[in-house]
Design a protein that fits this description.
Elements lengths: L12 E7 L9 E6 L2 E2 L5 H13 L8 E7 L9 E3 H8 L10 E9 L5 E9 L4 E7 L3 E5 L16 H4 E6 L12 H19 L3 E4 L5 H4 L4 H9 L3 E4 L5 E2 L18 E5 L6 H17 L3 E3 L1 H4 L9 H15 L4 E5 L5 H13 L3 E4 L1 H5 L15
Parallel strand pairs: 2-5, 14-15, 14-16, 16-17
Antiparallel strand pairs: 1-2, 1-4, 2-3, 6-7, 7-8, 8-9, 9-10, 11-12, 12-13
Length: about 375
């Protein structure tokens, strides 16, 4: 050291916290500590970034505290501290009245090593802030900054612990514990399931209790109830098909007469429609002769929907698929499998529903009475 040069030690910065009067911590103040250790910074910018991260964690209208970056000790009481964990707990108590949200962005991709993540950027207009909901097949992470894709230019990947709000494990955590954020989480999860099944063509496995309403609407309610009671996962395939666990169909069933067994009649429709509808009627009568209860969607829905209209045709297919979930067996009737029948067969196999092939010869072997204009009285 040159004589006359004065040594100036580097400045040390810390964060002084004053709890707000309306906060449960009212009256408390001290230096910010985390993991039982006081936080010190050699750069003022790093301390100010920590303050911004702490303020961004809030999910209610009432900030727990006010923060100041100060030179340490700066005339403050060095014996006093406030734990960051306590401040986060208070700040993350979500207010149900201000949890309306708007999805501003959706991203799906590989974060490295084949880990696929779906992310929703969710705007909370009442708080004038955005949070990010990140999903994979294990759980959900909610953060105050986009630490996965950095679409907000926050550079938060290396400070995950500072921006994480909630970590949810599907196996261990209950969905209701995330209310009132649950609707937004379900939307993020539904998006992730859709993209994952499209991307990989594999089934997406998730505990039944976490299945979003989007997929519940098309699933067998009895199966979902069983899966939740047994704490089982359900599998979702392409087009939102919830695949029944084969062990479910092996559960003890109440004794019923054979007439109560419902069979789904699948047979060709396009082409010679009149002739094909006649054959479908014969297939249904054959099922009745076998002491079954037949259900044939194109004998029912063609009475109210236009099969030549693509939208109405798809609606008929969707309605038929819903009914297939409730049937005991699928019968493929005739000597030709149409594309629609192939789809019904694939769905039945995924649901664990037995599939039986019934030839034209077998159906037409029985002596049938005319089916046109039978004039059956149902009243």
């Amino acid at each position: 050291m040159t004589e006359g040069n004065e040594f100036h030690p580097p400045k040390i910065y810390a964060i002084w916290v004053d709890a707000r009067p309306e906060s449960p911590m009212a009256g408390l103040s001290g230096f910010l500590s985390e993991n039982s250790r006081r936080l010190f910074f050699t750069e003022r910018g790093d301390a100010e970034l920590k303050i911004r991260d702490m303020e961004a964690l809030r999910l209610n209208r009432h900030p727990a505290a006010e923060y100041r970056c100060v030179e340490y000790p700066g005339g403050y009481d060095a014996e006093r501290s406030i734990q960051a964990e306590l401040l986060k707990t208070i700040s993350l108590q979500a207010d149900p009245e201000i949890m309306r949200y708007e999805v501003t962005d959706r991203i799906y991709g590989n974060t490295g090593g084949g880990c696929m993540v779906g992310t929703l950027a969710v705007r909370l207009p009442d708080l004038d802030k955005t949070i990010w909901i990140n999903c994979n097949d294990e759980g959900v992470t909610i953060t105050s900054a986009d630490y996965v894709w950095n679409e907000d230019d926050s550079g938060s990947w290396e400070r995950y612990e500072d921006v994480v709000m909630f970590e949810v494990n599907f196996r261990d955590d209950d969905p209701q514990s995330m209310w009132p954020l649950l609707p937004a989480i379900h939307e993020a999860l539904a998006y992730t399931i859709q993209r994952e099944t499209e991307y990989s063509s594999r089934l997406f496995s998730i505990p039944a209790k976490w299945l979003p309403e989007t997929y519940r609407r098309g699933a067998d309610p009895a199966y979902l109830k069983w899966a939740e009671e047994m704490e089982q996962s359900v599998e979702v395939g392409v087009n939102g098909l919830v695949v029944n666990d084969p062990s479910y169909r092996h559960q003890p069933q109440r004794e019923t007469d054979t007439q109560a067994k419902v069979v789904y009649i699948a047979s060709p429709l396009s082409g010679d429609v009149k002739r094909n509808l006649q054959f479908a009627r014969q297939a249904c009568r054959y099922a009745i002769s076998e002491e079954m209860t037949p259900f044939c969607p194109h004998l029912l829905y063609t009475q109210m929907l236009d099969d030549s209209d693509p939208e109405e045709r798809q609606l008929g297919i969707d309605l038929g698929n819903r009914m297939l979930r409730l049937c005991d067996e699928l019968w493929l009737c005739g000597d030709r499998i149409s594309p629609g029948m192939a789809g019904e067969k694939e769905m039945a196999e995924r649901l664990g529903i037995p599939v039986r092939s019934v030839s034209t010869e077998e159906i037409q072997s029985m002596e049938l009475s005319p089916t046109e204009g039978m004039g059956m009285s149902m009243g």
